[in-house]
């Protein structure tokens, strides 16, 4: 791909004008390449992106794709939200045109960038944010990019790009990034997800495995030892392997010693658990993964001075928004924004950490997983479940089946998040918590989980 970019004479077609697509189009145009970009959306954000791109000489179609033009292109750049079955990508494949993602383009045009790449079903955003925070604490110029929100292309568009990046990679992004070769690759967890896009769990796991596509003996990999699925996925992959665990200590490169309350990394204590400002063993695992990956990335990051700086940096870290974030605490009701919980496994983690009677908001666009796995924790802690959005019927059916046991469930039939929040306010009383942990994507009502989380926070504050 790097050679193809350097020798390109034809046109590059960028599909999708969201943040990553628009940044990729700008970057390609800055590199002197001919670019065509298109998006079926006609929203205000798309129109603004189109205006910006046209101003620098990009040909843009809004509201439709020119399939014949795409089929004649040299390379097609797909935004991660565009499924492989979409007409423009089908047209490219049928014409034999290579399809890659924005990350692939950005990495090829930034060959000097050093990066730690993180994937996994859950924990990857917090781990990525932690890695960036730790690198900066060590005095390194580093940015958090990828699925965490900032396109990798945006780095190359800066006048002075950073030397390092903490790169979050979704399965969708990995699908179209054949050239990924990180300084360190991290696999946090694995559990079924995105079954609305993948035909099977194995297919989803297969895209996660693409993180290791270019593995060689010198590659460095960090992975959880607490998942049989992870161990099975990475079996036989070349490289130097480093393992972390919150459940075992023997043979681990990073572990949590429950008896002493200490986190150990690379053979020595790093810090006490009570200095970690994040709740839950899942966040201890995220800390272990982040610290371990930074320390193995470069010898200068594991000196005695660096270890102390890393421990201090962990102690000052604050979790990213929309992940078990308390947004309002008033009248003895705690409103918790966990909009980032877009799958059942992530919502299960949130429920396990709840100690108050909880009004649980479940809903959005169904992703193919049954919600029955939530039943034990819901029976333990849920005051009521409010089911909403496109997935509401499925949620109600799963949680009220004859063998489900007693879980109080109400359904909001209006396709309005304001109506959902009105019902949440009606159900909550002093001593309760209201938890938005949807176990679904946001795309039935919102553009992304961030928008959903912000609206939850706004309506919690407005009506509290």
Automatic annotation (TrEMBL):
GO terms for cellular component: cytoplasm. Residues 118-293 form the Mur ligase central domain. It is an enzyme of class 6 (ligase). The keyword Cell wall biogenesis/degradation applies. Its EC number is 6.3.2.9. Pathway: Cell wall biogenesis; peptidoglycan biosynthesis. Cell wall formation. Catalyzes the addition of glutamate to the nucleotide precursor UDP-N-acetylmuramoyl-L-alanine (UMA). This is UDP-N-acetylmuramoylalanine--D-glutamate ligase. It comes from Gemmatimonas aurantiaca (strain DSM 14586 / JCM 11422 / NBRC 100505 / T-27).
